[in-house]
Amino acid sequence: MTSTGQDSTTTRQRRSRHNPHSPPHDSSATSKRGVKKGAILSSSPSLAEVKKKGRMKKLSQAAEQDLILDMRGLDLNLEAKTLSGTGLVFDEQLNEFHCLWDDSFPEGPERLHAIKEQLIQEGLLDRCVSFKARFAEKDELMLVHSLEYINLMETTQYMNEGELRILADTYDSVYLHPNSYTCACLASGSVLRLVDAVLGKEIRNGMAIIRPPGHHAQHSLMDGYCMFNHVAVAARYAQQKHDIQRVLIVDWDVHHGQGTQFTFDQDPSVLYFSIHRYEQGRFWPHLKDSNWSTIGFGHGQGYTINVPWNQVGMRDADYIAAFLHLLLPVALEFQPQLVLVAAGFDALQGDPKGEMAATPAGFAQLTHLLMGLAEGRLILSLEGGYNLRSLAEGVSASLHTLLGDPCPILESPGAPCPSALASLCCAMGALEPYWEVLVRSAETLEEDILEEDSTEEKDEEGLWRPPALPILTWPMLQARTGLVYDQRMMGHHNLWDNQHPEMPQRVLRIMQRLEELGLAGRCLTLAARPATEVELLSCHSAEYVGRLRATEKMKTRELHREGSNFDSIYICPSTFACAQLATGAVCRLVEAVLAGEVLNGTAVVRPPGHHAEQDAACGFCFFNSVAVAARHAQAVSGRALRILIVDWDVHHGNGTQHIFEEDPSVLYISLHRYDHGTFFPMGEEGASSQIGRAAGTGFTVNVAWNGPRVGDADYLAAWHRLVLPIAYEFNPELVLVSAGFDAAWGDPLGGCHVSPEGYAHLTHLLMGLANGRIILILEGGYNLTSISECMAACTRSLLGDPPPLLTLSRPPLSKALASITKTIQVHRRYWHSLRVMKVEDKEEPSLSKSVTKKATKPASPGSAKRMTTPEENILDAGTGKAVSTSSVEESILGQAKSETAVVGLSQETESSETPAREAPPYQTTSEAATGGAPPDQTTFEEAAGGAEMTQTPSALCTDNQISPSELNENLRTLELNCKAQEAPESQVPEEEKLLGEAAGGQDMDDSVLMQSSGVLANTDQATFYAVTPLPWCPHLVAVCPVPESGLDVTQPCQDCGAFQENWVCLSCYQVYCGRYVSAHMLQHHEGSGHPLVLSYVDLSTWCYNCEAYVHHQALLEVKNMAHQNKFGEDMPHSH
């Protein structure tokens, strides 16, 4: 179990290697909640008065000092340090070889000719920093390849055609030419030249347009058109010459780069990620090592990531989903110092080998996502691509992105297909024990989409045909980033409280910081203007606008009285003019972006706006600037422009939500503190259950944080799992950000921990949308240092600077994951991109190398061992102690943990003298089925359905109970048998209908349940049904200490008096019957909200909220007490 077993220790140890100074996670943090916006997170006796006035409590000297120290880590100074320039290696010498005996061979000189013509046509060659190719020296090639192999390749320069052909035929899918060796050395040297330039700070990033490709080449083996492995050599070279400790290699060629994988599969200093066509091993290179189940060996276990595509026609949405859900989270935890890309373009639509449907715009998106890593140190090395037009346009799109051009809007991006989600689910399940950031909640384990929705999705997928490749256009801009600010907005101030948090100095300090850093000078400054009456009336009532205008002539006492009529509002004579100017300034910036004057922009404005309702001021806000700007954009465009509004202010933007809640043209996503409805603006408006109304249903998305100290890891998890998947599916044409910075470190109102670096990354990730048209509008944020640094960091991202290094000190908080999960569960019916389903692979039994934590790499990669010793001691999950079992099949890490498996147990005929006893739970979970190894040591069935196994409680509800020793005696054979889940719901196999919780979580077939319940006593062969418990769930905090009176497993249901199948609530310790009696425990959960219950039948634990079984260290005490009461002895291996 990841929470208590050795795998969690491994994860912590790995994390400490990436970031040895990570502080421990403080899960005990609590906060006091205010009534008014501006309430202090303090226990001061004057708290009531402070709340009433909305007065900002100044930071203590120690807290201020901590904040200053934190800010020093952000290097926003010295603009000259910001690298610019994209390096390009393109050498005509690389065309001086071809296949002598087959003119139709796909890998030929025409590939580079087509690329060059495209780059010249688009003017890209002149925009890049040109580097000449150089030869890779033998000692450099020997970082990956053997000297004997290099010398053999060198001799090919002197061979005739016949000799070359004979040698080439000894390899798979290669040809040789007298110039092959020279060109391969030049190709490797080209990438090394870019490594020197990037790490030597000559350029920011680069691309090597080279041939022959390299990622299939192995230590002493030519393979798949490849002689030397360029990216592998470059990774080792960067480590040796430049002292780089961590390298990320991303391989998006449609063929698996097995040569690169084999080079680093035992090395934790190189993270290898490959996304490729696999088709259950039917696609070249036909290796089991290409499947998701191969994750590395020894110390490198967990550092190999394979996402196999098992069907053709994969689209941009599938590739982007793999990056968002898997690659980016793991990469941020890994913290690479250099990113190398094996950039094959044979997954593009029209490629004869790949048969995929990705587009050049899609590869621009992938490039952009990678540019947020390693402070932008990114090098692309050309691999495959055999449709000349697609190849040229793919290279061009990626190069545009490296140069800082905006990503084109995707054509019909849609959502990832079921097959892609299946592969992702499998890969994530295999890697979860090794990466803290991959800890998933229930959304990856259960699929609860309505049947009609699934049918609709299948129909949509069936009708889709890849369109012709669009002709991409790249905007010609006068300037990149617009900046709007007007000092007159400082006229709005509090007449009665000069320490009010929404003070005039907020915008002044931001502008001063932008000027100090030279950022303001890099922007195009736009003149602010007041919003027109028509613009204001697009979101506000005429009566309200007139009421606010009337305040300009009010006296002080009248202003105070009028302000008190609203929630958390102060008004002065300048308020109306300042609010009108702030809103008009944002409209001016919208006009500039839509007209192409600028690509994106920053609006440093006040007062803020997102709380303002149609007819009421609220929470320091008067006119809803972002809402008016959205309506103005649609008016300027003359149509319902698709607009995404992301609101990351720590307070929920109630006004924005209400204005657009019936409008499907505006997608509103808010991430905010909610604290179960007690955080401003309070009530249920910010709950995840608020999804919009009428035609706008599903277009309001709320991520409601329930507590303080939410930070970078939590926001990025929300971005990767929820915000960006929905955003890409929505495919906006304009992005507006309600950029409040009161979730930042040091803010006196927010109590959260988002860093300037974190905001920079959030901004960068959003910049891939809407052709780069994104505008940040200042909302809240009340620590002057924090908001200045945060806005500066975001502005640098908008200007195209790579996001700064972001060190995540901890994984996402459990409470944050719970909030994200809850929102995903609510919105899966509306957004297909959130439908991560429970799946099973169709893969045949694997022939790949076995993977266990301590396994050494076998000499032959094609063998899998089978252990059949009569009795074998295998480490128990979470304990490290031996558990006796009969036989276990050893192979690679198996199917995702959410999958189902059927476990056949061959049972000896029991002696009538043997007393019947109920099987304790410690051997009804995965320990019994697999030998009890934790995830990073467990051996699994290498079939596609090879699943970690857990026997369901329903299979153990028997009248003839079995003792632990008897169960071990009966474990004579162990067999996994998984089948693909492609049948409609009416044809779901009986074993899947059994998967569910007898206390009321899921439906089960009664007849099958009864059949399995009595099978042990009546047959020689029993079939058990298996699921895997969650190793952790966010609701464990609801478990309360056991009452002093202890537990009584014989206690009847408190409602009906039934004695069979009873459960005890782990919050209040009341006992009720399960769903197959009278379902009183289910009714108790629905009434009380208590999530976790313990079965008195088999001592398993079920979480209603996660809809899954849970096994965690926090549950061992109560399980052990129940075991003592039930069997009169401690539960073995419970520590």
Report on the structure:
This protein has 34 helices and 27 strands. It is of the alpha/beta class and 1135 residues long. Among the domains are: 353 residues, Histone deacetylase domain (Arginase, Chain A); 340 residues, Histone deacetylase domain (Arginase, Chain A, 3-Layer(aba) Sandwich), CATH 3.40.800.20; 92 residues, 2-Layer Sandwich (Herpes Virus-1), CATH 3.30.40. An eight-stranded parallel beta sheet has the order 2-1-3-8-7-4-5-6, with helices on both faces. An eight-stranded parallel beta sheet has the order 10-9-11-16-15-12-13-14, with helices on both faces. Strand 7, helix 12 and strand 8 form a beta-alpha-beta unit. It is globular. It catalyses: N(6)-acetyl-L-lysyl-[protein] + H2O = L-lysyl-[protein] + acetate; N(6)-acetyl-L-lysyl-[alpha-tubulin] + H2O = L-lysyl-[alpha-tubulin] + acetate. It comes from Suricata suricatta. InterPro entries: HDACs, His_deacetylse_dom, His_deacetylse_dom_sf, Ureohydrolase_dom_sf, Znf_RING/FYVE/PHD, Znf_UBP.
List the helices and strands and how they pair.
Blueprint (H helix, E strand, L loop, with lengths): L5 H13 L28 H7 L7 H12 L13 E5 L19 H12 L7 E3 L6 H4 L5 H9 L5 H8 L11 H20 L5 E5 L20 H13 L4 E5 L6 H7 L5 E8 L26 E6 L6 H19 L3 E6 L16 H11 L7 E5 L5 H15 L15 H14 L19 H13 L15 E6 L20 H12 L2 H4 L1 E3 L6 H5 L4 H8 L6 H9 L10 H20 L3 E6 L21 H13 L5 E5 L6 H7 L5 E8 L26 E6 L6 H19 L3 E6 L16 H11 L7 E5 L5 H15 L15 H14 L38 E2 L4 E4 L6 E4 L2 E2 L11 E6 L19 H5 L33 H7 L19 H4 L12 H8 L1 H4 L2 E6 L35 E4 L5 E3 L6 H9 L3 E4 L5 E3 L4 E2 L6 H12 L8
Parallel strand pairs: 1-2, 1-3, 3-8, 4-5, 4-7, 5-6, 7-8, 9-10, 9-11, 11-16, 12-13, 12-15, 13-14, 15-16
Antiparallel strand pairs: 17-20, 18-19, 21-22, 23-24, 23-25, 25-26, 26-27
